[in-house]
Sequence to fold (221 residues):
Amino acid sequence: MSHIQHLEPILKKMLHNYEVISSKVSTNGQSLYVTVLKQNTDYYCQFRISTHSSSSSFYSNKSFNYFGNNSDKLVEKILNYLEYSPWTSFTYADYFVLQTLKLSSKQDIFYYIDNTFGIFDNNVQSMVFYQEYNHSKYKAINLVTESFNKFLKKLFSTGLLSHYKLSEDILRLYITNAGAELLNRYTSVYSDLYEEDFYGIDWKNIALPEHTGSTLIANKE
Fold:
């Protein structure tokens, strides 16, 4: 077990003023992604502890360097950060996008990050997503709508979405453990509304429902 993995029980104990909804060690054991909720709110925050810098500038969450030295000092830094960090509200729009991604595979739809000419790997321009639709004899590849792209970028930057490489040029999008946990948590809040919107989804050209509006429907009372 790496020294990063040893941090998990320490952090869960020390972050008792927050609800840890996800704690995930990377496959190489060198990074730990922790997502917490402010108690009794819909505001979440993810931070990263690692032995190396993030490979993508599109991931915007705070990273803490750790090499197995002083865990108490690390925890102190994290607690101080959480007190003053920017927190993100989990809205219905976020739920809609995550739930739609989850169900898309049943519609033979998959989502990718445009990495043509190393655009994503080299961080040379804004992140762009496209979808691949395969159904019977029909196949189409197109950029996602502006509204959908906006929230894919938000969810990626806050750690609820990530990607894996199918090849050097093909990066498939997936819901992270933190994204899945928040999706499950808010199912009881938003599932009825989503069921109404589900029947209006154009799977070839998915866009956010118009009723989300500029406020994007914050957590219901």
Summary: Residues 214-221 have pLDDT under 50 and may be disordered. Residues 200 and 209 are 8 Å apart (CA to CA). The helical segments are 7-14, 71-84, 92-104, 146-157, 177-185, 187-198.
